[in-house]
Amino acid sequence: MDADALKSVPLFASLSDETRKGLATWITEATVSEGKHLVEEGDYSYDLFIIRDGAADVLHDGQCVAELGPGDFFGEMGVLQKAKRGATVVAKSLMQLLVLSSWDVKRLRRSAPDVYRQLEDAIEQRSTQSPA
């Protein structure tokens, strides 16, 4: 992953160049096709996904409750709280994703506490909304 490319990702935009460079070594890039089930409701969560390009539907109990696009992320609740996935996420188009393992997300607490706090804030906001 190119550290400079992370500047265009809202979650990482405020990081210093040095922190972004370190973070880039942990990130895996993935391309998925339309229709791919990225995560399944009820499964355990081991990865955090950040959408670089494309769109996905968030389904809860089979109903679409949200649409995600570039800059959005999902999986933070399961990774930070060891909770089961609250929804299924399905690619609506060809997608480019950035993926951080649960281990790497834990490293964020030390190296990029501001990003870690953003993930915690997202959990808080989402827990008061629909189960995306």
Search tags:
132 residues; alpha+beta; 30% strand
The helix/strand order is: HEEEEEEHEEHH
> Which structural class should the secondary elements be placed in?
alpha+beta
Major beta sheet, strand line-up: 1-8-3-6
Main sheet specs: 4 strands, antiparallel
Low-confidence stretches: none
Mean pLDDT: 87
* CATH fold annotation: Jelly Rolls
Number of helices: 4
The second-level CATH architecture is: Sandwich
The end-to-end span amounts to 27 Å
Using the CA coordinates, give the radius of gyration.
14 Å
Query: What percentage of the residues does DSSP assign to strands (E)?
Result: 25-35%
Give a short overview.
This protein is α+β, with helices and mostly antiparallel strands and 132 residues long. Helix content is 30%, strand content 30%. α3 crosses α4 (113-127).
Structural write-up:
- By secondary structure, the protein is of the alpha+beta class.
- Helices cover 30% and strands 30% of the residues.
- It is built from 4 helices and 8 strands.
- α3 (102-111) packs across α4 (113-127).
